Amino acid sequence: MLGFLRAGVPSGVPKRWARTNAFWRKVFGRRRLDYLIREYVAHYTHERPHQSLENRTIVPLPTITQGEVRRKTRLTGLLRHYHRAAA
Hints:
Blueprint: H1 3-6, H2 13-27, H3 30-46, E1 69-74, E2 79-84
């Protein structure tokens, strides 16, 4: 299947394609895909503001006006949520 890599194709595109394809096969194993979906749904419902809800979250968060600002990351920093810590 990857014979074009050994054939000395001058373009770097086939090599990049092979690297990218191997990356996605690794990332989207069954357990990993379940984890990615679970984390994204949690971020989407609990942390992400929605314009149709006047920039509120689907699951309401307590309103805290004082306290230290903290960052919560999901998916190794791909998704970030900033919130105030309870005083």
